[in-house]
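go over this chain:
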Amino acid sequence: MPHIVIEHSTDGHAAFDVTELMQALHDAAAATGVMQAADIKVRATAYADYLVAGRRDGFCHVSVYMLEGRTPEQKVALSEALRATMAQLLPQTKSLSVDIRDMDAVAYKKRLLD
């Protein structure tokens, strides 16, 4: 169920492989124990048009959406692990950020086909 959504600029980085970044963030999230590897969905979107503080500085922002119930300490551990992974893979990127979002378990609805 947890979703890791990566948004990044198309420039402002040293060359990087987005698939490698997605796998690394998946693995880092699973390693925290806050979520199970088999449940994590990861996707990425690149932006050619963007401004960061009014400038074209490279960025990578990760949003994590998961059902409510984790402790603040678990969320901080997850956020720090993801940011550290981004810093390792994107050492030249000006802006790296992570946002952890709780999803309302009552309002969240899902459909899966067999």
User: Anything to note?
Assistant: The first strand starts at residue 3 and ends at 9. The chain has a mean pLDDT of 95. The CA atoms of residues 44 and 93 lie 16 Å apart.
